[in-house]
């Protein structure tokens, strides 16, 4: 077809040139004037755009078309088969090749109308098919609005879309013009960029030489919508495939896990007889533990708990009543109560989280090393002794001389431990000294189950001899089973008498080698350095004898020596590697915290990448500050470390991580019955050496076959924090005769749950311990501490006696309560408060931070500096 001018086409279409130009603009065909020419393709487009309608019956037809569009060609799926039935492919072919329908004259409207009424649906489809093929239908046309046209087209065309693309349709179109041949399927499926702008789209359409036949009749928006829809379909498909892939992956992982579990079970199913003796024992222990454990949540109903225990709920209700708890069957009970009940039925209750933590921490369990993997490691040494006997001076001397020898001008970094190199007759040896005050290394750490020290160096000043803390140190070391090397210090001093020190030490079980014993004693001077080399040689020798070994080729584990929060560097912890090798980048758990080793420094402040057994290192990277004595472990990754730490924190928060079960007189009998206690360890403090001996003898005589009474430490003076910590480390009780715990000892006892008992009559001590061992401890009278006041002045009041002007330091002082007057830690009076005044007024009580006047019943020997302790006595049923 030749080019057609706009006015010619307008005439042909029966419309004005202006109207046509308007339409052409809508179709985005640029025309300047009626004389502009249009090519064949453009003419086709225009004609397609304009709908033919019978002019005289315009309204009727319009109505019909409305009906059609609403009812007939809706893309409802149910209607599709019907349509298919009605439209025979052959007919369609016939239509496809049929000449254009002649124009309808106004006179013929009536007959046409009838015909149309009969074939409404058939007509509609024909029209659609014609439209599909881009054929011109009639010259008698009516102009529809573009919106209307688009709407109709959408409605009509959709149902056919798939068919048109389908094979049968393709075959049914033998006469498709080459020019409009569809691009092949692959090309049509070219992916569309995710966010297609109209311009991009037009470019895209223009770039396709042969656009999709359908698309050439559509507006750019429609094409865009169409492509977007396709794109979305494609994306949905991809998403679906991804989902399926993930599900499959998960299933695969599950299958793998199941397989692994099955394999483990199979191993576990190895017949008992085929296991080695050790494995048999392990299996028995595991089975017994499993049978004994009930895992329960924080709160559980009586019924549920009864089910778990395998007992009748009514029975449990009775047990609860016996415990003084009246609850209904569906009411919840707390974990503590449940644990008590479980114990009655021979089971151990475990919190759900605790169980999980245990399984997590199973990973932390150490596998025994093979003999061939063990390599010698340096010894860890703690220096102990009485105040001012020269511990710090000795350590400084050793540290400084050795450091200076190694690296001139080097400044020792204080990280809680020092590594020194010593030349001995056996060659160069490495020794590791802990800086922590001796007793702490033994108590705080031992209380957490960490035994770090290999050798204890006991410093005794030659001019002072054995003093209370010397004895304490000996007892600490003995309780921990650590060999002692004695450094008799200050031999440079004129009054020094090493022989006398040796003599005194023999009274505490330390016999010098030169006297036939086995304790190494070296006279030294920390000030001049005399004898220090010999001391170091002796330490190295002792270490040699001990054959200290560890496996360096495995993930590290050890103990936190000290930890602090550094303003710039965050949590900083000094870790002592006990086994394995700690490396930068390792994921670690330390106490309640986790992290990754970001950086490590040795005791000289040098950055190091690795630390082997016995090496102390300062570590950065933990997410919190652990406690001294906490153990640390390297785990497989940071995620596991955090998981363990979180679980530990959770349990700590819920206070489920109870303190290690401590021995107490009240529970001694039940603990003995349960086999938890075979020895009753006692830390004994009294006001005089004479009483100590008497009490020690009487208590030790109480030992029976079931339980042995052992005094692990005895001393004169008040009960101190050290005594409590020693008791905590050795699972002991503290007995005070005529002495009292000081405030730090009281706090420590509360924290560590140590049973501290004080008496005024020796017979009472013996009687109570005896009864406790027989399970006959009478309903206990528990002392409840109220507060204490310091005596700052005394006044003599006629007829009343001495009144103490006091300052209440903590708690409260009550008029009707009991009072005890303590002088230098020793109880000098125990009785009642006779009067309590604020200025001149009698008051019922005085709180901490205030001054008051206190009179004691029938007691006038009050001195400035004394402490008045106020308490009440409460009766407590045993076991409550
Ligand atoms: N003459 C002499 N004086 C010494 C010697 N060793 C330590 N001293 C002195 O004794 C005093 C106490 O020494 P420290 O090293 O502080 O004693 P300590 O045992 O660490 O004391 P605390 O840390 O308080 O327990 C200091 O004035 C030292 O200089 C020594 O071998 N000879």
Automatic annotation (TrEMBL):
Keyword Calcium part of the UniProt annotation: no
Mention one GO molecular function: translation initiation factor activity
Write out the annotated subcellular location: Cytoplasm
Q: Give the GO cellular component terms, alphabetically.
A: cytosol
| Pfam families according to UniProt | EF-G_D2 (PF22042), GTP_EFTU (PF00009), GTP_EFTU_D2 (PF03144), IF-2 (PF11987), IF2_N (PF04760)
Record field: compositional bias (Basic residues): 151-160
Bias (Basic and acidic residues)? 75-93, 105-140, 161-171, 181-202, 209-235, 359-376
Coarse class of the primary localization is cytoplasm
Similarity remark: Belongs to the TRAFAC class translation factor GTPase superfamily. Classic translation factor GTPase family. IF-2 subfamily.
Protein name per its UniProtKB record = Translation initiation factor IF-2
């Amino acid at each position: 077809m030749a080019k057609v001018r706009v006015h010619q086409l307008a005439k042909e279409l029966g419309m004005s040139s202006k109207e046509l130009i308007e339409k052409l603009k809508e179709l985005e065909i640029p025309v300047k004037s009626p004389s502009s020419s249009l090519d064949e393709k453009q003419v086709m487009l225009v004609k397609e755009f304009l709908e033919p309608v019978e002019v005289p019956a315009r309204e009727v037809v319009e109505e019909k078309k409305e009906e059609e569009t609403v009812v007939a060609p809706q893309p409802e799926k149910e209607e599709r088969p019907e349509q298919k039935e009605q439209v025979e492919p052959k007919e369609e072919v016939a239509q496809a090749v049929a000449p254009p329908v002649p124009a309808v004259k106004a006179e013929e409207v009536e007959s046409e109308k009838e015909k149309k009424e009969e074939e409404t649906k058939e007509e509609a489809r024909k029209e659609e098919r014609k439209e599909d093929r881009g054929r011109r239908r009639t010259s008698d046309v009516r102009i529809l609005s573009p919106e209307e046209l688009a709407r109709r087209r959408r409605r009509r065309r959709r149902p056919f879309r798939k068919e048109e693309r389908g094979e049968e349709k393709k075959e049914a179109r033998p006469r498709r013009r080459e020019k409009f041949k569809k691009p092949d399927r692959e090309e049509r499926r070219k992916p569309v960029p995710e966010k297609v702008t109209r311009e991009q789209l037009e470019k895209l359409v223009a770039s396709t030489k042969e656009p999709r036949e359908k698309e050439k009749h559509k507006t750019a928006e429609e094409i865009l919508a169409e492509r977007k829809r396709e794109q979305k379909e494609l994306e949905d498909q991809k998403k679906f495939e991804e989902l399926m892939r993930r599900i499959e992956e998960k299933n695969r992982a599950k299958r793998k896990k199941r397989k692994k579990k099955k394999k483990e079970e199979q191993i576990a199913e190895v017949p008992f007889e085929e296991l080695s003796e050790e494995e048999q024992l392990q299996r028995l222990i595991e089975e017994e533990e499993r049978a004994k454990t009930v895992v329960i949540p924080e709160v559980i109903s009586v019924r549920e708990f009864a089910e778990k225990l395998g007992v009748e709920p009514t029975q449990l209700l009775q047990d609860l009543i016996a415990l003084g708890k009246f609850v209904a069957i569906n009411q919840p009970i707390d974990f503590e109560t449940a644990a008590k009940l479980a114990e009655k039925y021979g089971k151990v209750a475990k919190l759900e989280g605790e169980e999980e933590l245990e399984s997590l921490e199973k990973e932390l369990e150490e596998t025994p090393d093979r003999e061939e993997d063990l390599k010698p490691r340096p010894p860890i040494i703690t220096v102990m002794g009485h105040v001012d006997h020269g511990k710090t001076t000795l350590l400084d001397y050793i540290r400084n001389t050795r450091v200076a020898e190694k690296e001139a001008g080097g400044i020792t970094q204080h990280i809680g431990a020092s590594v020194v190199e010593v030349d001995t007759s056996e060659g160069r040896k490495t020794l590791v000294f802990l800086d922590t005050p001796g007793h702490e290394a033994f108590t705080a750490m031992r209380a957490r189950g960490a035994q770090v020290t290999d050798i204890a160096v006991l410093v005794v000043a030659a001019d002072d001899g054995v003093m209370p803390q010397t004895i304490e140190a000996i007892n600490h070391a003995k309780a921990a089973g650590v060999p002692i090397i004695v450094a008799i210090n200050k031999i440079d001093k004129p009054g020094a008498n090493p022989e006398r020190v040796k003599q005194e030490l023999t009274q505490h079980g330390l016999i010098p080698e030169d006297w036939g014993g086995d304790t190494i004693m070296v006279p030294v001077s920390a000030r001049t350095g005399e004898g220090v080399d010999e001391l170091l040689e002796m330490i190295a020798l002792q270490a040699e004898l001990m054959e200290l070994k560890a496996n360096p080729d495995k993930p590290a584990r050890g103990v936190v020596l000290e930890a602090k929060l550094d303003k710039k560097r965050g949590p900083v912890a000094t870790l002592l590697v006990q086994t394995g090798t700690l490396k930068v980048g390792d994921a670690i758990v330390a106490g309640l915290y986790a992290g990754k080793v970001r950086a490590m420094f040795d005791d000289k402040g040098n950055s190091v990448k690795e630390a082997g057994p016995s090496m102390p290192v300062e570590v950065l990277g933990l997410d919190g500050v652990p406690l001294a004595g906490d153990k640390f472990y390297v785990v497989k990754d940071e995620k596991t470390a955090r998981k363990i730490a979180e679980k530990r924190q959770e349990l700590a928060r819920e206070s489920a991580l109870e303190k290690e079960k401590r021995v107490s007189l009240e529970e001694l009998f039940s603990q003995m019955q349960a086999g938890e206690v075979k020895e009753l360890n006692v830390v004994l403090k009294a006001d005089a050496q004479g009483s100590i001996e008497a009490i020690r003898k009487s208590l030790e005589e109480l030992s029976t076959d079931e339980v042995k009474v052992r005094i692990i430490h005895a001393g004169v003076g008040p009960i101190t924090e050290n005594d409590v910590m020693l008791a905590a480390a050795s699972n002991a009780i503290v007995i005070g005769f005529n002495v009292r715990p000081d405030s730090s000892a009281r706090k420590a006892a509360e924290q560590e749950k140590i049973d501290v008992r004080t008496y005024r009559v020796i017979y009472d001590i013996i009687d109570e311990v005896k009864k406790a061992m027989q399970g006959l401890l009478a309903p206990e009278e528990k002392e409840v501490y109220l507060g204490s006041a310091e005596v700052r002045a005394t006044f003599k009041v006629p007829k009343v006696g001495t009144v103490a002007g006091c300052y209440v330091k903590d708690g409260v002082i009550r008029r009707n309560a009991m009072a005890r007057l303590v002088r230098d830690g020793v109880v000098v009076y125990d009785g009642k408060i006779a009067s309590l005044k604020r200025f001149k007024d009698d008051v019922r009580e005085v709180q901490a931070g205030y001054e008051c006047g206190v009179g004691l019943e029938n007691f006038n020997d009050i001195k400035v500096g004394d402490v008045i302790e106020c308490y009440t006595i409460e009766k407590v049923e045993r076991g409550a």
